[in-house]
Amino acid sequence: MAWETVIGLEIHAQLATKSKIFSGASTAFGAEPNTQACAVDLGLPGVLPVLNREAVNMALRFGVAIGAEIAPYNVFARKNYFYPDLPKGYQISQMELPIVGSGHLEIELEDGSSKTVGVTRAHLEEDAGKSLHEDYQGMTGIDLNRAGTPLLEIVSEPDMRSAKEAIAYMKKIHALVRYLGICDGNMQEGSFRCDANVSVRPVGQAEYGTRAELKNINSFRFVERAINLEVERQIDVIESGGSVVQETRLYDSDKHETRSMRSKEEANDYRYFPDPDLLPVAISEADIEAARATLPELPDEKKKRFVSEFGLSDYDAGVLTAELEVATYFEVVAQECGDAKLASNWVSSDLSGALHKSGIEFSDCPVDAVRLGGVLKRVVDNTISGKIAKQVFDEMWNNDADADTIIEQKGLKQITDTGALEAMVDDVLAANADQVEQYRAGKTKVLGFFVGQVMKASKGKANPGQINQLFKQKLDS
Amino acid sequence: MSLDSSDVKKIAHLARLGISDDAVPEYATELSRILELVEQMNAVDTSAVSPMAHPQDVVQRLRPDEVTETDNRDGFQGVAPATEDGLYLVPRVIE
Amino acid sequence: MHNKTIAELSAGLSAGEFSSVELTEACIQRISTLAGRSNCFITQTPERALEDAKHADQRRATGDFGPLTGIPIAHKDIFCTQGIRSSCASKMLDSFVSPYESTVSAKLKAAGTVLLGKTNMDEFAMGSSNETSFYGPVRNPWNHDVVPGGSSGGSAACVAARLASAATGTDTGGSIRQPAALCGITGLKPTYGRVSRYGMIAFASSLDQAGPMTRTAQDAAMMLQAMAGFDERDSTSVDVGVPDYSANLADSIDGLTIGLPREYFAEGLDSGVGDVLEQALETLRKLGATTVDIDLPNTSLAVPAYYVVAPAECSSNLSRMDGVRFGYRCEDPVDLEDLYKRSRGEGFGEEVKRRIMIGTYALSAGYYDAYYLKAQRVRRLISDDFTRAFDQVDVIMGPTAPSVAFALGSKTDDPIGMYLSDIYTIAVNLAGLPAMSVPCGFADELPVGLQIIGKPFEESRLLNVAHQFQQATDWHQRAPQEYL
Q1: Which of A332, B33, C409, C443 is the least buried, fewest Cβ under 10 Å from its Cβ?
Q2: How much is the mean pLDDT over chain A?
Q3: Tens digits of per-residue pLDDT, C300-331?
Q4: C193 lies in a domain?
Q5: Of A391, A410, A429, which marks where a domain is finished?
Q6: Half-sphere exposure (Cβ direction) of A270: Cα atoms closer than 13 Å
């Protein structure tokens, strides 16, 4: 039987506020355990939550960016359950009235087509602490620094039909929250996390199959693997006569398997009710307009502009705009050198290749955009060749010098003096009488050999096109 | 609504309250009586009435995004039942 | 000295008749000999008191003081007080020495009050007789065989016994007013949002409100002045200016319209209490007030709605008592579930467990609409009743409690009977209104309280009416024989 996969994602994006959603404790990552957990975060008796304005603003910006419905009021509710990393015995979240209602965004598929994915809702909530399972006298240690960090939980419609689509959606949300400046997107530090609801159904069937919720898939790579693994598992279960159980499954990247988390399953009855410590949050039309006014250029718009303004292909524009940092970098390079296509090629192949090879993140790139632009500017004005540009770039990778300094110091400037070049051409012709004969006999391919000789003699500083011309003039006259 | 022993056990589990088996029937009786009192609410039709969560008809005030709290781990952990290396300790959690 | 009101003591301090240290020493002495009789204190803080008193005397000497500077008071043990056990009368928090200070206690400290100790109460404020305390029941100073009322029974007994001139209380369903009535003192529950709830251990967040318990309305005005005000740490605190509560005390109440809810003077009200109230109303009429009968038709639904809303909120509020970060932890838990269940099972008393279970049930899947949502709708009806009534009248009056203080142990096996002792006070919390109880006579040799209910944020009017009543009567000056 042919099966269709149905996927919906729940993405938790930690909002990039300075302080927590309901307290004035810092949200900075990596502090000593429990040094950033204040009385409110610890849920001491008698403490009360007060909502962070910036968390609300950030959620609003997201809502406006995906064209979502924003209700005039949203309400915080308590989700009650006991767990040691949940200090109050309830998580303050939103249930019936989330801040961001239904919206949508476009994802690009590999075949170049695009698809609209629905966002059901996005709501504000507080993050939990962390359980550390290293052995503390046979006990688990609890660090509540993370408790109370603002989260935006973004829930998609079950609109994805393959792991690849799920990745494309996840990357799109990732790009969006970073463009909006509302989340640093750091998946290693857990700032951007993903759960996937996965089910399968026979092709053509209208009803959804029973879904499993995959937890803990916190890299783009894992999402794809975990989903494919789960799809295979569900098909196996059904084809061998069983049925899929609705449950939460944990993806184990080491063992490459998903396994049931029955411990979290038992009788989940969260007893949601409006948090009496918090009042309804009012969002006015003016608030929405203000959020809209602060929106930066978003990935889709930027991509369109790159195509129209710089004449880039859809594909190149897509690659460059997938990450805000890359797009911004590219624009500076293009500006500096005055040749957008050259800049595009360099940023998306030479530069990213070099970063990849050295295992360096884009944000830690040793060559800033102005310096790279400076190199390419000298290619554009024929001061150096493309080949020399790579040499200058390699040089820059290890020091802080700008292009002109390197070109000057290393004497890499292209030889444009026709007299000097002519002398070199004459030397080559004089030293290679046999090849001159061959050329005249019609074997014009030796022209390449001649050019190569001059390039060698000039240590790459000659302009190959110009030399080519000179040889032709001399030999054909 | 009358609660039986299994209801009481289920509720006690949800609320993580350890109660002895001996006490369950008495809880069932008492809780059922309280529910009987509570169900007097049903005497009035409220279908057209909007729920009231707060006495005051006011909206949430928003706090500026500023870090105002400083580390007081030692102060807070002074009242904790069990800590080590700055962590709160609980019996091993198995996922 | 112990028979003086705050106003009198404040005048005495200002006149240099005595110092705060002398006054405080006298209080400490009296508490050490008399507090045991009623068991009204959980924790006495004599050292802290003397420190506060010295500081207050210094402040008075340097001119940096207010009317409360140097006045000894007590706090209900529901307020978190830094460095002092803040137990909420529960085994669960017996070891909880608060690492932070509540807003109410901080404001009173800043006003220069002297802290004598933390008063006994019903466990987590759940009770109407002060018999659910982990530290044993409180006895009524008027008769040690009867209850003082609850949950602020320790504060009421402490003020009634002249051990402190004032104490703080909290009121979720009558917990200031009912014990004030039963102990013959003055108690004020402010409008919801008037006093910060930060640092007050939550019972039912949408109902809880702190207020003063004093001998006189004049003292209540002075205390409320220090306690009230906007707090940025409490989202439900209302940013409304605090008036001068003492400014209008002397105003005449000639022309005041008093609404008397028929439902409050109907079946269920003890006839002796009814007679006393009628006399009190006659006094008010003589002062120029007129009384009109009004209807609060949904009165009978208040107790049922309350016993959904309050337990629902408390079931969630008390989830943080899990034996992990503070408070009681059972011995040698075998696993996490055991830790939770035994710590909570052993740490909470019976009434608290009952309410947690009712609340858990009312919020659970399949029952939320029938119980919680229904109760919130009924709450609206009750609130609307008051709004309509206040179109006609300035204040509403009635009994604070249906009877005088009852015998210790007489209702401990009858939760429903106990719940019904708050029948006249609960609706006020559901509607978030301000209300007072003032002493208005005796029945069966025990005090009776007159309840005065006002419009939102009209505490000044309540205090004015109460003060005028107290100018015309001397019930508030009566003291129990044993504590004269």
Answers
A1: C409
A2: 91
A3: 999 999 999 999 999 999 999 999 999 999 99
A4: yes
A5: A410
A6: 14
C340 touches chain A (CB under 8 A): yes
Please check whether residues A31 and A82 belong to one and the same domain.
yes
Task: List the alpha helices (DSSP H) in C111-212.
Answer: 153-160, 177-183
Set of chain B residues whose Cβ sits within 8 Å of the Cβ of C300: 40
A424 with A347, same domain: the answer is: no
What kind of fold does domain B5-43 have according to CATH? Histone, subunit A (1.10.20)
Spatial contact of B60 and A278, defined as CB atoms under 8 Å apart: yes
As given in the structure block, the two tokens for residue A347 are 């940023």
Query: Given a cut of 70, is residue C363 above it in pLDDT?
Result: yes
Q: What percent of chain C lies above the pLDDT cut of 90?
A: 97
Give C123's DSSP letter.
Answer: G
DSSP letters of A335-353?
A: HHHS-HHHHHHIIIIIIHH
User: How many Cβ atoms from other residues are within 10 Å of residue A465's Cβ?
Assistant: 11
Indicate the residue among A290, A318, A345 that finishes a domain: A290
Which of A14, A47, A136 to mutate to probe the B interface, most B CBs <10 Å?
A: A136
* 8 A C-beta contact, residue A129 and residue A145: yes
Interchain contact, A141 vs B87, CB within 8 Å = yes
Residue C185 included in any domain: yes
Neighbours of chain A (3+ CB pairs under 8 A): B, C
Q: Which range of residues forms the domain containing residue A361?
A: 297-410
Residues of the domain holding C478: 6-256+393-483
The answer to whether residues A197 and A212 touch, using CB atoms and an 8 Å cutoff, is yes
Residues A259 and A234 in one domain: yes
* Neighbors of chain C with 3 or more C-beta pairs under 8 Å: A, B
Domain extents in chain B: 5-43
pLDDT category of residue A433 using cuts at 50, 70 and 90: confident
pLDDT tens-digit series, residues C239-270 = 999 999 999 999 999 999 999 999 999 989 99
CA-nearest of C465, C463, C453 to C382 is C453
Cα separation, A74 vs A122, whole angstroms = 11
Number of domains in chain C: 1
Any idea what the CATH number is for the domain that residue C203 is in? 3.90.1300.10
Residues of C involved in catalysis: 76, 151, 175
Closest CA–CA distance from residue C102 to any residue of chain B (Å): 15
Domains identified in chain A, total number: 3
- Residue C298 within a domain: no
ipTM of the complex: 0.97
